[in-house]
């Protein structure tokens, strides 16, 4: 800067400072005037507030003195003060102005005015009380409009009471408090403003003094500055030369550093064309500096990065910012390498970008290592996922844990986000205490953690079994970390539980089978002992006829009992094969129940147990499509059980229709079944109370037969029972009403048949001689049927008899015979004699056997051993029908 220019600047600066000094001085005097004005306003405001307080006190004093002394001078003074306040009489200075108008002339704030106006308003309100007291003393009272025109006798007591009571004193106190509040509020504001103006004055005075000092300093410095300017210019030239030499040395150092740098350094223009590259660039890429000079850095691209990647990079650096990232490039020979790059814009003096500096480091080896680590990590995560294992690392000081991805998947909660305390939150309550004890023991004693426990997952609230493994890591002898794994072993635990359950069921099954075999041995031996024992007694010659009949009755009952046992065993075996078919026919449910009632009522009477039957539908509506044999088998087992276990009370059988479901029940007041046994009684070989079952007998198959037959009918069986009260067994099956119905009447049978003297021809197809002799004796000797009996020893002979004897009236066909079985023989006979009644007879009275017999063409079915009553019913049903025709 030359001397002339310096002198001009100093001159302008001094003039400016003098002008500012003058303005500040003027402001200082003006501020002093403001302080004086505020002090005067303060005194005036105090005066007007004091007048209001004095006036209020005078009004109170004058009105009270008057009602106490009755001196009218006090009354006159009271009205004068009130008139002055309201602007009706002059103040002491001779001016007539209301107090309210005088307040408006002051520059009070709204809050301050409100205080005074409220005090004035309360004074006026209180003046009414004072007027009321004065007028009451004078005998004048309010006429209801606020005017005291009503004349009465003076009431001194009222006047004094009004003006001296607590209410008056409270109102008076409030007035004084409001005036006092005004004083406090106004005083604070005025003092604050005065302090503000005084502060401004002090500041202005300080600034003025500072400006004076600055003017003196500038004048002094200007003198010496001009004096030494020439000397300084020579010194500056010397310093500039030294700096230039230092800059040159720095540039040489920088050039050596760039050339010898272990990093690749490239300088390009704003389009990416190379202007400079150091030797490391040649070493990494294979391109010499001369080869790449002027070429674009695109020569290194491998097309690995997307256009979006490069566009974002250019956007960053062209906006003047530094970009950092990784490039996958290729060398001159095509070898791929990775570079960690930092690209920085180079700007000129005007802040314009003129070049880009790129510093890059070859990270190929570290990239390979990182990729290998990532691959290993992925493999580890996948392995953990397959094995359902998660890992964790718990810092025992911060109690924060780092967890693997699969750990979070198993627990459904990322423990890395919270302290390890949340692990306790999701631990199953039944396992939490033990889990904590084991963990504390591991930390305290350095033992390994190995525990199976349960957790409740954070989101889905599933219960999972966990196998936890872990150990404490020590640093400087202190526990630092607790690291380990958790494995989801829920499936294994479920399998273990299922295996335990299967083991228990197998053991229970073996026990039941053993018990069943013992029961079966007992149940079979009991009737066999009766049959064998009493059969031997029958051979004795000296027994009476009565005993003989008694023994025969026992043998017959034992035989029936044994037959029932065999039927149950065969039935359960058939059901076990899952090959039993359902044959639905049109059946009247009322008739079936009546038949069962007739059969079991005899036994019920023997036990002195009433048997009741309840029907809820008419014969027409109760005619349904159902497998009659299976239904009878179900109900027979249920009624038989009821008779076994009911010693007192009653048994009731019945049914009702509910939502197109037919519900048939057998209710008893017997021993009842414990709730815990009510499901297992339907399992094979199971009994509700084995001790009680031993007393009444049975194999434990009846209810399982009833259950499986009910399921074949598309229904279900249930029980409601209470120990010592009784049981109700109920089967629920679909209601399938018949479209056409003909009333089925049960025909009563008699032990003797009234027949016409006509002769019958009956063919008995039976390969067992004893069975044939029994039938022959029954027909000829017992029921004395006039008939010719033909005997065929196999199915083929039966067919031949029917071909050669067209006068055969009835065929009793054994289904199991040599040469040709009864089923095939029946089919062949029905082809040429379709109207000939053929009755199937077999020892296997299972539903399948009955179905096969009817499918072969048999008209009816009887089970062995055949009794006299059954033969009478068959003869009555088929031969008498023939006579009617």
Characteristic terms for this protein:
single chain, 885 residues, alpha+beta, 5-stranded antiparallel sheet, 24 helices, 24 strands, flat
How would you sum up this structure, described in words?
This protein is α+β, with helices and mostly antiparallel strands and 885 residues long. Helices cover 56% and strands 18% of the residues. It contains 24 helices and 24 strands. Strands 4-3-7-6-5 form a five-stranded antiparallel sheet, with helices on both faces. It has a five-stranded antiparallel sheet with strand order 9-8-12-11-10, with helices on both faces. A five-stranded mixed sheet has the order 14-16-17-19-18. Helix 1 (3-69) runs antiparallel to helix 2 (72-85) and helix 21 (795-804) runs parallel beside helix 22 (822-832).
Shape: flat
Integer average pLDDT:
79
Q: How many helices does DSSP assign?
A: 24
For the largest beta-sheet, the strand count, sense and barrel status come to: 5 strands, antiparallel
The fraction of residues assigned to DSSP E strands is 15-25%
Spatial arrangement of strands, main beta sheet: 4-3-7-6-5
The termini sit apart by 155 Å
Percent of residues in helices: 55-70%
Low-confidence stretches: 740-758
* Helix/strand structural class: alpha+beta
- The beta-strand count equals 24
Backbone CA Rg? 62 Å
């Amino acid at each position: 800067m030359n001397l002339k220019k310096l002198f001009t600047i100093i001159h302008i600066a001094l003039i400016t400072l003098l002008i500012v000094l003058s303005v500040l001085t003027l402001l200082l005097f003006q501020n002093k005037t403001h302080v004086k004005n505020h002090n005067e306003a303060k005194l005036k405001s105090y005066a007007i507030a004091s007048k209001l307080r004095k006036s209020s006190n005078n009004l109170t004093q004058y009105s009270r003195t008057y009602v106490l002394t009755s001196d009218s001078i006090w009354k006159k003074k009271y009205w004068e003060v009130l008139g002055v306040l309201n602007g009706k009489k002059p103040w002491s200075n001779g001016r007539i102005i209301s107090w309210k108008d005088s307040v408006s002339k002051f520059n009070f704030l709204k809050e301050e005015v409100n205080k005074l106006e409220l005090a004035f308003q309360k004074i006026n309100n209180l003046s009414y009380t004072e007027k009321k007291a004065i007028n009451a003393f004078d005998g004048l009272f309010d006429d209801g409009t606020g005017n005291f025109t009503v004349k009465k006798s003076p009431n001194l007591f009222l006047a004094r009471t009004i003006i001296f009571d607590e209410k008056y004193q409270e109102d008076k106190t409030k007035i004084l408090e409001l005036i006092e509040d005004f004083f406090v509020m106004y005083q604070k504001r005025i003092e604050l403003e005065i302090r503000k103006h005084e502060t401004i004055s002090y500041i202005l005075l300080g600034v003025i003094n500072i400006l004076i000092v600055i003017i003196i300093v500038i004048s002094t410095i200007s003198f010496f500055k001009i004096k030494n300017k020439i000397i300084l210019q020579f010194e500056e030239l010397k310093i500039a030369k030294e700096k230039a030499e230092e800059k040159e040395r720095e540039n040489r150092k920088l050039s050596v550093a760039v050339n010898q740098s272990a990093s690749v350094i490239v300088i390009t223009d704003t389009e990416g064309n190379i202007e400079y590259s150091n030797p490391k660039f040649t070493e990494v890429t294979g391109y010499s500096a001369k080869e790449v000079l002027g070429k674009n850095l695109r020569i290194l691209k491998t097309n690995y990065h997307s256009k979006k990647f490069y566009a974002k990079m250019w956007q960053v650096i062209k906006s003047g910012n530094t970009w950092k990232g990784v490039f996958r490039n290729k060398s001159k020979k095509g070898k791929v390498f990775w570079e960690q790059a930092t690209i920085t814009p180079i700007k000129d003096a005007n802040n314009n970008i003129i070049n880009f500096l790129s510093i890059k480091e070859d990270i190929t080896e570290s990239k390979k290592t990182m990729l290998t680590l990532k691959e290993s990590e992925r493999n580890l995560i996948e392995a953990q996922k397959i094995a359902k294992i998660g890992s964790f690392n718990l810092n025992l000081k911060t109690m924060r844990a780092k967890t693997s991805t699969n750990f979070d998947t198993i627990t459904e909660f990322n423990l890395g986000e919270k302290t390890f305390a949340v692990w306790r939150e999701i631990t199953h309550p039944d396992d939490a205490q033990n889990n904590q004890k084991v963990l504390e023991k591991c930390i305290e004693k350095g033992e390994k953690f190995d525990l199976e426990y349960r957790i409740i997952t954070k989101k889905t609230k599933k219960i999972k079994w966990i196998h936890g493994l872990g150990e404490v890591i020590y640093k400087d002898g202190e526990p630092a970390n607790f690291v380990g794994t958790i494995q989801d072993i829920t499936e294994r635990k479920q399998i273990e539980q299922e295996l335990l359950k299967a083991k228990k069921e197998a053991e229970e099954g073996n026990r039941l089978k053993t018990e069943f075999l013992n029961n079966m041995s007992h149940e079979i031996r009991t009737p066999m002992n009766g049959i064998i024992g009493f059969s031997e007694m029958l051979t004795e010659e000296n027994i009476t006829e009565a005993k003989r009949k008694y023994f025969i009755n026992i043998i017959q009952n034992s035989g029936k009992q044994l037959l029932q046992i065999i039927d149950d065993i065969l039935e359960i075996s058939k059901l076990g094969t899952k090959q039993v078919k359902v044959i639905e026919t049109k059946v009247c449910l009322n008739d079936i129940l009546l038949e069962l009632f007739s059969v079991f009522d005899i036994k019920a009477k023997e036990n002195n147990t009433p048997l009741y039957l309840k029907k809820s539908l008419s014969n027409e509506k109760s005619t349904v499509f159902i497998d009659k044999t299976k239904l009878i088998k179900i109900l027979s087992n249920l009624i038989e059980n009821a008779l076994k276990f009911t010693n007192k009370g009653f048994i009731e059988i019945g049914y009702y229709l509910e939502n197109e479901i037919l519900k048939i029940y057998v209710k008893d007041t017997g021993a009842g079944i414990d709730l815990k046994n009510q499901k297992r009684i339907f399992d094979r070989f199971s009994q509700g109370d084995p001790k009680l079952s031993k007393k009444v007998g049975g194999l434990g198959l009846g209810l399982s037969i009833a259950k499986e037959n009910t399921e074949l009918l598309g229904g279900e069986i249930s029980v409601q029972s209470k120990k010592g009260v009784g049981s109700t067994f109920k089967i629920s099956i679909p209601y399938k009403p018949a479209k056409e119905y003909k009333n089925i009447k049960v025909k009563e049978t008699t032990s003797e048949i009234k027949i016409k003297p006509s002769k019958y021809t009956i063919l008995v197809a039976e390969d067992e001689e004893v069975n044939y002799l029994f039938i022959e004796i029954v027909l000829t000797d017992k029921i004395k049927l006039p008939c010719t009996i033909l005997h065929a020893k196999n199915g083929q002979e039966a067919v031949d008899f029917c071909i050669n004897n067209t006068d055969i009236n009835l065929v009793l066909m054994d289904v199991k015979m040599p040469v040709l079985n009864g089923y095939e023989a029946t089919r062949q006979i029905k082809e040429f004699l379709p109207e000939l009644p053929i009755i199937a007879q077999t020892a296997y009275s299972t539903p399948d056997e009955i179905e096969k017999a009817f499918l072969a063409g048999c008209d009816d079915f009887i089970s062995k051993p055949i009794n006299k009553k059954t033969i009478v019913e068959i003869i009555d049903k088929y031969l008498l029908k023939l006579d009617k025709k």
